[in-house]
Design goal:
Radius of gyration: 27 Å
Order of helices and strands: HHHEEHEHEEEEEHEEEHEHEHH
Number of helices: 10
Largest sheet: 7 strands, mixed
Oligomer: single chain
Strand order of the largest sheet: 4-5-6-3-9-12-13
Helix content: 25-40%
Length: 409
């Protein structure tokens, strides 16, 4: 039998080699696969860990934080997807396809003053909504939001284009790997609105029935687990307001015998009727209804039809926006209606909350398609209402996931 010398009497060089050999053997035995290289996805997850939706010790800080008071801060990472990697972007929102060259507007993230808002994680979100149905109810800006979410989720699973009506107003996407359904239910006013036809032509004048809900979205309401409801921009038209007895007022009508109640009144009453309907829907199963607050347009030097443009390339600071604007007034009345709906909902087990994007989006005049929207029928007009994809609207999904997490868990 060979007798090993005492370690203390070994030459220093030999002792060092022996210790390194022991450490290496322990590493080999304890590591599941030490020679397997880290994949790009694993590396991305490792680097993205501080921004993931696993909050850990930050839970209390996040839950107490007002997500909607903050500022846009530089974000070198930029968008999680591109206009090339997402094949479902509507052409009118694909700003780079139509010639936009600057990319600085993509390199900003929303930072609440009191906490870090986690970056949207599509994999975690799909696990969160597995087996559920989420519906966006509203106008083309609601569709804009759904398309943003669709692009983000497509990074993890390719959705099935399940349904599209003849006008592409109702659209349904299905993620079979997660049994998740995403849909848009398009409506101009939430309540029933009809455009007057004069001499066989559309007049641009609408009759709005304040207490009659638009069936274009209520028919599918019972199947939804989560609702995101929004509307506003169609109310900036000549509208006659009706109750059960007839015309009670108007918006922009300039009629001597009819009171002009303004956009705010009409919008408030439409939201009140819509939220009341959701609260009183006996066959509905929605766990949470979120109201996305007013998304401001940014026309400068004119309106949409008088040469207004939106060609900025970077955000505004908090001190550069006006919280006394008409946009903020519309946001405030929406917040009031959410609170009223919540009081009623608490009696019945339904939950309402705000996606309060107005402040954040007042600071983003740089994120609209502007002249880069490819509408050949409206050549020379700028789109300063909708948002480029990718673009600042993607931050709405950071808000969405965090607010859903708060209300569901």
């Amino acid at each position: 039998m060979m007798i090993l010398p005492k370690l203390g009497k070994l030459p220093p060089f030999f002792l060092s080699c022996l210790l390194l050999t022991i450490i290496f053997i322990v590493f080999i035995l304890c590591s599941p696969n030490p020679f397997n290289p880290i994949s790009k996805s694993d590396l991305h997850q490792t680097l993205a860990l501080p921004n993931s939706t696993s909050h850990g010790d930050d839970d209390d800080e996040i839950l107490k934080c007002d997500l909607f008071k903050g500022e846009w801060v530089p974000d070198p990472q930029g968008s999680l997807y591109t206009n090339w990697s997402c094949s479902t972007i509507p052409t009118s929102k694909n700003c780079f396809h139509h010639g936009r060259k600057d990319t600085e507007f993509l390199k900003w993230r929303w930072k609440p003053h009191q906490c870090q808002l986690p970056r949207f994680d599509p994999k975690t979100f799909l696990e969160f909504v597995q087996g559920k149905k989420l519906g966006f109810i509203g106008d083309s800006v609601a569709r804009n939001h759904m398309d943003s979410l669709l692009c983000l989720l497509s990074m993890v699973e390719t959705p099935v284009d399940h349904y599209k009506d003849s006008e592409d107003r109702k659209r349904v996407w299905y993620f079979p790997g997660h049994d998740f359904t995403l849909m848009i239910l398009w409506t101009k006013f939430l309540v029933d609105g009809e455009e007057r036809v004069i001499n066989g032509s559309s007049s641009g004048i609408f009759d709005l029935h304040l207490y009659k809900i638009d069936k274009k979205w209520t028919t599918d309401l019972p199947v939804l687990d989560y609702i995101i409801i929004s509307d506003a921009h169609w109310f900036f038209r000549t509208i006659y307001l009706h109750n059960d007895t007839g015309v009670v007022g108007c918006v922009y009508c300039d009629h001597p015998n009819v009171t002009d109640f303004g956009v705010g009144f009409a919008l408030r009453m439409a939201f009140r009727s819509a939220l009341n309907h959701i609260n009183r829907c006996r066959e509905c199963k929605a766990r949470v209804t979120l109201v996305r607050t007013f998304s401001p347009a940014h026309f400068e030097n004119g309106t949409w039809d008088t040469g207004g443009r939106c060609n900025r390339t970077s955000p505004l600071s908090e001190r550069e926006i006006k919280l006394t604007s008409n946009e903020w007034e519309l946001r405030s009345l929406q917040m009031e209606e959410i609170e009223k709906a919540n009081i009623e909902g608490n009696k019945k087990g339904t939950k309402f909350a705000a996606l309060d994007v107005t402040r954040a989006m007042l600071m983003r005049p740089d994120g609209h398609p502007g002249e880069f929207w490819g509408n050949k029928w409206m050549n020379g007009y700028n789109d300063c209402v909708h948002w480029c994809l990718p673009g600042p609207i993607d931050a709405w999904n950071d808000f969405l996931f965090e607010v859903l997490r708060r209300k569901v868990t």
